[in-house]
Amino acid sequence: MNVVIIGCGVIGAAIAYELSLVKGLKITVCDRQPPAQASTGAALGVLMGVISQKIKGKAWQMRQTSIQRYETLIPELEALTGRKIPFNRQGILMLLSDSSLEGMSVWEKLVEVRHSQGWNLEIWDMAKLQNICPQVDVYDGLHLREKVTGAVYSPQDRQIDPTALTLALVKAAQQNGVTFKFGVTVLDAPTSTPESSPQFCNQLETTEGKIAADWFVVAAGLGSTPLTAKLNQIIDIRPVLGQALHMRVGHPLGNPDFQPAITGNDVHIVPVGGGDYWVGATVEFPSNGDEIPPNQELLESVREQAIAFCPELATAKIIRTWSGLRPRPEGRPAPVIGKLPGFSNVLLATGHYRNGVLLAPATAYAIREMIISQGMGG
């Protein structure tokens, strides 16, 4: 049975790898760019699962599935590919300030819920925070916005390098027999007669000729909108820009043996080895049309917030800045996973907005289930 996946960011690559473990599937992945170029290449890879406020239903289920799968997936990929994937197992530390979600009660409740679900979450007071993470400024708070009043530590959440992960998924999938075609653009998607319901898509017309399949999986992020338009079923996904900084301090902040990802006020400070940190990201919506010129002031305010949390970052050298567009579904919750309306063999795995890296393993599982449960006979 032939499966074609369109899009090779972290979502498309994760689906390709997960499907490559299923016997009897012939898988092809196409992308007009090399892997991990769009949203994936811009992501910081902070996997906020246990520390997220999602506690039930699909939103929590997917987070839990992904966090669990990453623990086996990373060693599995490293063994298969011989590549090292930067994977920070030291957890996520969320700094709380005066206005943190109606104060502490929300977090105390979350700690209880997580314990009942078998996950660990700790609330730290100022003394503990200062003792364990001396790089965090617990005194001043004058730099900007509100003062830090405490922290929540999630030892089981992770941070990963999204590009390294995606490239390892591609290599492992290739070793398992998946075909990748980069620099291929989809031109058209002819469908069966309009009278038949649901419709069936037999093949794609691409810049490299026709590609036929039993299943098509649209995992193209922002590219999913023009693709679904060709099938007359537009899934409206809009861009939201994010900018980030690579900063070099020259030595690890605080305790070199304890370097969790630190987050607060929607700003992440991510250790990436040595004395280097990623800091981000902005959230910038298009003002008119889909054009979003990167706003320098917003990026500067993210840098200032990071410095307010960790004053040593003030002396850090900015090695590079980068930005990327995140795919946000219009008028419906993210992500969009399931059948394209009106089609029996086109699946959507797109519109993950700011949680693509976090939800990639669970998305891959969901797509695999849909294909298997519909009967491998097509």
TrEMBL record:
State the name under which the record lists this protein. FAD-dependent oxidoreductase
Q: What InterPro entries is this protein classified in? A: FAD-dep_OxRdtase, FAD/NAD-bd_sf
Q: Give the originating organism.
A: Nostoc punctiforme NIES-2108
- What are the coiled-coil residue ranges? none
Pfam families linked to this entry: DAO
Please name the GO terms that the record assigns under molecular function: oxidoreductase activity
Show where the FAD dependent oxidoreductase domain sits.
3-369
What GO cellular component term, any one, is given? cytoplasm
Return the PANTHER family for the record.
GLYCINE OXIDASE, SARCOSINE DEHYDROGENASE-RELATED
Keyword terms: Oxidoreductase
